[in-house]
């Protein structure tokens, strides 16, 4: 983020779609899509150019959505999150459940990624052993690979 972007956010000056994209990690097409489907409110436009201008309140929402999206949260769950924020204490239990469900999903994805990482490391070990003409090490790598493949 540049000094200008930081100043714009602090002063309450509007930000461009490009600035918001860099700040939130969401692509410009994603920002337009989120606006189109109502996940974020309609964004003000510059009177002269017609370009979108994002004000700090909307930018904060977008930054939150960027964090949620980076975890793989669905648009449906993000929509539920935003609507439950207005519920106060009544929204606490559903929000807890929403975040717990997404944490569980992410934990399963991480476990699968760890298996895939193990697979790649073992393949590298196998080819290293083959290059070094170490038949024993190659056999051990292949045996371990079979276990990993079963886990996939």
Report on this model:
Helix content is 72%, strand content 3%. It has a two-stranded antiparallel sheet with strand order 1-2. The longest helix has 40 residues. The chain is built from 7 helices and 2 strands, in the order αααββαααα. By secondary structure, it is mainly α. A hairpin with a 6-residue loop joins strand 1 and strand 2.
Structural class: mainly alpha
Computed Rg:
23 Å
Report the biggest beta sheet as strand number plus sense, adding barrel if it closes: 2 strands, antiparallel
What does the oligomeric state look like here?
single chain
Strand order, main sheet: write it out: 1-2
Question: Using DSSP, what is the number of strands?
Answer: 2
Count of alpha/pi helices: 7
- What gross morphology would you assign? elongated
- Strand content bin: under 5%
Order of helices and strands: HHHEEHHHH
Estimate the mean pLDDT confidence: 92
